[in-house]
Specification:
- This protein is mainly alpha-helical.
- The protein has a domain of about 50 residues.
- Helix content is about 70%, strand content about 5%.
- The protein is built from 4 helices and 2 strands.
- Strands 1-2 form a two-stranded antiparallel sheet.
- The longest helix has about 35 residues.
- The relative contact order is 0.06.
Length: about 130
């Protein structure tokens, strides 16, 4: 992730905090959910501020009206770009639990493979 400094230079920001994640509630899942909600609230706040700025600029210059925004139709390229942006946002919001989901997925396939192996070896023994 990067951000701009006051003088316009791009500054590279660290993506993950070092060390263990602090827990504030007795249930770590509540902390994870709170982290996701706060990330979403931050994204929404920034988006609303930017939208407010655009609408105020447009109104001051008579560029377009609120009705123009409400009736505007998007083409398929824009819809695809938005869908990609939505996926990035979703990954960012769920980042706190995504590693656990990946571990569960990896464990599920290895558990499944282990069960299949046991059944196959048991079947071979019964045939002998």
């Amino acid at each position: 992730m990067s951000a701009s400094s006051p003088d316009g230079d791009t500054v590279s920001l660290q993506r993950k905090a070092k060390g263990k994640r602090p827990f504030y509630f007795s249930d770590p899942d509540v902390d994870k959910l709170l982290t996701m909600v706060m990330a979403l609230a931050g994204e929404l706040s920034v988006t609303r501020d930017r939208l407010d700025t655009v609408e105020r600029i447009a109104a001051s210059k008579n560029l377009f009206s609120e009705k123009d925004i409400e009736t505007f139709e998007l083409d398929s390229d824009v819809l695809q770009a938005r869908a990609a942006r939505h996926q990035v946002l979703f990954r960012e919001i769920t980042r706190v639990i995504s590693s656990e989901i990946e571990e569960l997925d990896r464990g599920s396939s290895s558990d499944y493979e282990h069960v299949v192996e046991m059944v196959e070896s048991e079947g071979r023994r019964n045939l002998l």
